[in-house]
Amino acid sequence: MDGLLIALELLVTTPLVFAVMAGVVWGIIGGALPGISPSITLALLLPFTFGLEPVVAITMLASAYVGAEYGGSIPAILIRTPGTSAAVATAIDGYEMHRKGRGGEALGISLAAGVAGGLIGMILLVLVMGPLAEIALAFTAPAYFALGVLGLSIIASLNDKSFVKALLSGLIGLGIASIGVDPVSGIPRFTFGRPELLGGIPPILIMMGLFAVSELFAQAGTPQWERTKASTRIRLPSLSMWRRIARATGIGSVLGAVEGCTPGGGGSISAFLAYNEAQRWSKTPEEFGKGAPEAIAAPEAANNTQAVTGLVPTLAFGIPSSSTMAVLLGAFLVHGIQPGPLLFAQQPELIYGLFGGLFVANVGQLLLGFLLLMPCIWLVNRPKPYLMMGIYVLIFSGAYSLDHSLFDLGIVLVAGCLGYAMRYAEFPLLPMVLGLVLGPIVERYYRRTLELSRGDFAAFVQDPVSLGLLVTAALFITWSLWRNYRDWSRRRAAAPPAR
Amino acid sequence: MYRNLVAGLLLAAVAAAYYMAADDLTISPLDVAAATTDQFPKRIAVAVIILSLILMAQALLARRQASAAAVAPESGRGDVPGQHRRAAVILAIGIAYVALLNIVGYVAVTVLLVAAGAWFLGRRGSLEIALVAAGTTLLSWLLFEVLLGIQMPAGQWMALLPGGRP
Description:
Distance between the termini of chain A: 75 Å
Shape of chain A: globular
Number of helices of chain A: 22
Number of strands of chain B: 0
Distance between the termini of chain B: 52 Å
Helix content of chain A: over 70%
Oligomer: heterodimer
Radius of gyration of chain B: 25 Å
Radius of gyration of chain A: 22 Å
Number of helices of chain B: 5
Structural class of chain A: mainly alpha
Strand content of chain B: under 5%
């Protein structure tokens, strides 16, 4: 009850509602632009939040994530080009419905299922956060170190293509995070005499380069996406349509909730899982792929649920569940807030303000989805070169606004080159981002454990929570190695015989 | 597979350099022996070297298998012709932007960035490009300098004017 009162007070006395709506608007527009992922959308919004109170800033960013998940479905349905990777599943049947003249209906299902999924995610978030924070308070230094290792292991092991590359990516992130002043002894490390590096490299600059700039480089060679001349109006589902998509919406919400709490997600996994499960449980599975409403409702509900439940590990443990949550975590750090269980005790207004703001964001999305459809269509139809250069300007301006430093712009460009090279070599980006964000925490608790135990490594396994987490991490690693080996064996067996 | 081989070599080299840089770090006398300033980076470096060697071994094994089966090794993601050249030009435009920002000033260099980038990416029509470049710059200036109050570089030439800020 206290939390509800805090949330209501913040909604009434601060510009929280306005910031939430602005965040949703930004998110819908950003999500509607192909190639601009929710993480890029948040990274571009971040500079605009510097002058805001932390609760307003963080809620605005989280609301942008909510908006981006819906925004991605607009081009997915209208031009079969997902605005976000999570909208790929929506594009399959959404575009088919649009081709049959039911684009407005498809957009309405996407919007309504997304709002429903987001509200379900909100309920779960509120129910789970408090008890989880209590549990996290009991964590010791070795347990926190082990949690960081587990987070990195999970994300690395969820990478389909190469576990080795995912681990390398995470380690690169840890290495970059070590630049600056040693968090324990205060000795400069890897600064090469540059005063700009004494404070370390702000993770947000790396993320802007890794996600946004590298995407610009990649988009430079690809042609303009298809344009739509549709004058589409959104049509919300009728009661009979709701009866039809209710089960799919529920399935998507459950899967989205699970993925949101699991590191390594980001929406696209749960969206496809939701699509498959909705088809399995549908009374008309043969309609999937040809414009089935359930095929839109399930992934969209999953996307929006995981956008909210992704806050669970991010807030409770300070471990982001996706690249977008990693950007949000970077925003916490920029605003001088350390996520983790102590946040509940020390800054409850931030938590409850965030809850209240997200509720408003999910409901407000319903209205804003209607209002922003035509502007989004107009924007998507603009010549791609102008959109790309506009984003380039936003990136540079945003990075400069952090510390008024040209060095920061250089870091963004270097990170952009690194991101481009990693994409080319098929190295996943998320483990690196996680390593970057978790690096200081992991190292701090690693060394604290050893200092308390006077150098005895057994301290990591003597703590039962730490032992359990490390064993779980080892199981994930083993499973991933086995899976890589199994795939390699299958490819070898399927390869033509040697001459 | 060549990509993995090159990536492994590069990473191993960087990790080796990182290890040597960590070895040169000053150690605080207050640190426990197993938890000194250099220990964590060194462990990262060793892990990267080991994994890089594994990656290279995987690449060589895959290449050998492909040769034995007389098929071309997987090239991984399909390459768009000229992709890297175009990306390099966008990068060069960005580098020029950073280099000129303090000299020419935010407004002028942003107009140049948008115009140059749009022209390179295929837009034609001087008037259209000029208008869009000017409009984008104006919008950005309004957002950052007027709305957010973030002072963008005015350019060194502005300091020469009476009352101009550096």
